[in-house]
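Late entry, evening session. Most of the bench is empty. Finally got around to the prediction I had been postponing all week. Sequence below, unchanged from the version circulated by S.P.
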Amino acid sequence: MRSDEELLLAWRGGDLRAGNLLFSRYFEIVERYFSNKTTGEVEDLVQQTFEACVQGRDRFEGRAPFRIYLLKIARYRLYKHWSARKKRRAEDIEKMSLADLGAGPSTLLAQQHNHKRLLDALRQIPLAQQELLELYYWEELSGPELAEFLGLSENTARSRLRRAKLALAEAMRKLERGLAVPESTESDIESWARGIRANSLRVREEPV
């Protein structure tokens, strides 16, 4: 299989098929990035992300993996979307939860009640923390990749990830107390998060 770098080089040289292959490789990741952070605008935001990538393809310097570059574009489009809708700065938006922003139900399919609770809890914590956890659990970004995505040192990125996990655990406890169900453990949360990703992959693989 051709690497991202090989496809990008061919695309820059005029090979449109290489560009299509590159986009096909990462379409699912970009779509999943938006799926639990907005509602009816997922398709538009995915399209805007890839259009921005096309426009800026010659500016990509290759210092980070292509998927991180693409996710950073997606992040910019997401914050621009919510900033315009709420007339707030991106710095303010990242501190707000989707519940604060008034977003509707997630477009991700939850196959189990535990999965639905986790998706609901994610939407109760600040958007920046939700984003970090979803990239960690669903896209399996490593410490260095999270640092590159955030533009921070790896130690700082890992520290933010720990705080995000604590915030999610607290949000889960609040939901579970209200539902009178047993409290989840960190292991439960990690397992459910991986399960949501697996479900999203199966849904895309099912024939129409």
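Two things to note before I forget:
The chain has one domain: 4-205.
DSSP finds eleven helices and no strands in the chain.
Will write this up properly tomorrow.
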